[in-house]
Amino acid sequence: MATIAIEGMEFFAYHGCFKEEQVIGTRFTVDIVLEADTSQAEISDDLKQTVNYQAVYKVIKAEMEQNSHLLEHVARRIMDSVFNHFNEIQHITVKVSKLNPALSVGGKVNQVSVTLNR
User: 42 is in which domain, residue-wise?
Assistant: First the structure.
């Protein structure tokens, strides 16, 4: 069993509950940790026998391009989509962070995040 982590993927997207967030957008980061059996790839040195992290990135990018109100919804879509595209994945952790989130009460927060596991 191996752990494959893809960390710090940056996206500009339109997720948020405020109308302004849906119009002007903001920056997000996504981190994903995958557990999969890579024993064949360890021996063969063949990309087809492991999880291709570029293909994973493309799946995540497609999900980030779909607007949502909640980070929970974005994270669930990413988790389900990646899990469904790659049969060899046995466990997945997805963290979606919104950088410089808008706050209705004022103040400054560097980021908020949601982490889901499956």
Answer: 2-117
